[in-house]
Specification:
This protein has about 240 residues and is an alpha/beta fold. The chain is built from eight helices and seven strands. The protein folds into two domains: about 160 residues, Nucleotidyltransferase, domain 5, CATH 3.30.420; about 35 residues, no CATH class. About 35% of the residues lie in helices and about 20% in strands. A hairpin with a 5-residue loop joins strand 6 and strand 7. Helix 6 crosses helix 8 and helix 7 packs parallel to helix 8. The longest helix is centred in the C-terminal third of the chain and has 19 residues. The radius of gyration is 17 Å and the shape is globular.
Length: about 240
C-alpha cells in the first residue's frame, strides 16, 4: 500500500523585511522567509503547498469599494479597522498619498489613509503575482485576512489587540486549539519580522487549509470580478 502524505498549505503575511510564510500539513508548522512573495511561493519547501493564502488584497476595484472589504468590516465589528478599503487600481498608480486619495475619491471610493498607501508596494507585488500565477501542480492562490480568521476561530471578537502581549497570547491559544503549535518568538526578527506577523501567517495557513478542505466561505459569495479578471474575495 502506498502511504498518502497529508496536503500542505501555505499562509503568507507581509512584514517589514519582506514576506513570511507558514507551511502547515495539519500537524507541523514550518516558517519560511523571503524578500519577495514570488521567491517565497517558489521556495523548494513551499512548492508542496496546494493552497497559498495571502494576507493582501487580490482583485483591485475599478471604482468604489470592494464588496469583500465592506463585508469583512461588518463581520469584524469593533475590530473593523484592521481591514482597510482597497484603493482602486487607478489610485494605486499614484506616487503620493495625497494623489492616491484624490484619485480614489474621483473613482467613488473613500480617501486613502497613509497606512493603506504605505502598503502600496506590497499590494502591487501581489497584484503582479495574481496576474501571472499559474496553478502548476494544482496550487491555488487565495486572499485571506488573519483577523477574520481569528474572529472565526474564536466565534466572535477577540479581547485584545494583536500588538499587545495579551493579544498575542490570545491568538497563540486559538492557533493551538485548531492544531497549529508554534513559538512565534523563535521566528520573529526585530525590525524585520514581528511576533504578530508570525501569528498572522499561521492564521492565514489555517484559512488556506479550510479552502483546501472545502469548509471555507468567501466574502462575497460568489467572489466579485472586476476588469482585471481576478477573483476578489476574502476566504475564511
Amino acid at each position: 500500500m502506498i502511504a498518502r502524505h497529508p496536503p500542505t498549505v501555505l499562509g503568507v503575511d507581509g512584514c517589514r523585511g519582506g514576506w513570511l510564510g507558514i507551511l502547515w500539513d495539519g500537524s507541523a508548522a514550518v516558517a519560511i522567509f523571503h524578500s519577495t512573495i514570488r521567491e517565497l511561493i517558489d521556495d523548494e519547501t513551499a512548492r508542496s503547498a496546494v493552497v497559498v493564502g495571502v494576507d493582501m488584497p487580490m482583485g483591485l476595484p475599478d471604482e468604489g469599494a470592494r464588496q469583500a472589504d465592506r463585508m469583512a468590516q461588518r463581520e469584524l465589528g469593533r475590530r473593523a479597522s484592521s481591514i482597510f478599503v482597497t484603493p482602486t487600481r487607478s489610485a494605486l498608480t499614484m506616487v503620493t498619498q495625497s494623489q492616491a486619495s484624490a484619485v480614489n475619491k474621483e473613482r467613488g471610493g473613500p480617501g486613502v489613509s497613509i497606512q493603506a498607501f504605505n502598503l502600496r508596494p506590497k499590494v502591487l507585488e501581489v497584484d503582479e503575482l495574481a496576474r501571472t500565477f499559474v496553478a502548476e501542480r494544482g496550487r491555488r492562490l487565495v486572499e485571506v485576512h488573519p483577523e477574520l480568521s481569528f474572529h472565526t476561530m474564536n466565534d466572535g471578537s477577540l479581547s485584545h489587540s494583536k500588538r499587545t502581549p495579551e493579544g498575542q497570547e490570545e491568538r497563540r491559544a486559538l492557533l493551538r486549539r485548531v492544531g497549529i503549535e508554534l513559538d512565534p518568538t523563535s521566528t520573529a526578527i526585530p525590525g524585520r519580522i514581528a511576533i504578530d506577523d508570525v501569528l498572522d501567517a499561521a492564521a492565514a495557513a489555517w484559512s488556506a487549509w479550510r479552502v483546501n478542505s472545502g469548509t471555507a466561505r468567501s466574502l462575497p459569495d460568489p467572489p466579485e470580478i472586476n476588469s482585471d479578471g481576478i477573483s476578489a474575495a476574502i476566504w475564511v
